[in-house]
Amino acid sequence: MDKVVASAAEAVADVRDGASLAVGGFGLCGVPNTLIQAVYDSGVGDLSVVSNNCGAMESGLAVLLAAHRIRRVTGSYIGANKEFARQYLAGEIEVEMIPQGTLAERLRAGGAGIPAFYTPAGVGTQVAAGGLPWRYDGRGGVAVASPPKEVREFDGRHYVLEHGITCDFALVRAARGDRHGNLVFAKSARNFNPLAAMAGRITVAEVEELVEPGELDPDQVHLPGVFVQRVVALTPEQAADKRIEKRTVRA
Question: pLDDT (tens digit, 9 = 90+) per residue, 189-200?
Answer without folding.
Answer: 998 999 999 999
